[in-house]
Input
Amino acid sequence: MPSIKLYLSWYFAKQVYNIDVMFISYEGLLDNKFDILKKLCNYYEIEYNAKNVENSKQSKGSADKMLTEKQKEKIIETFKPYKGLDFSALGV
Output
């Protein structure tokens, strides 16, 4: 059921809050994660930095160190319609 809940949350975000979401599958992410990452970056107009991706494969640090300020702002903007919900566990 977790995958259904995830889908419903994305569907709800798109329909109710008019948040632009790109649907991806777990299987697709497992099969070709870097291609999916490039597609996500392109979809959300976030600069894809191959060097940061390569560094992320080698380190277990915080993604915070790999994102530009513009990328962080874009992520935070995505969560704004959900006023009153605590996303701190996701680092937002």
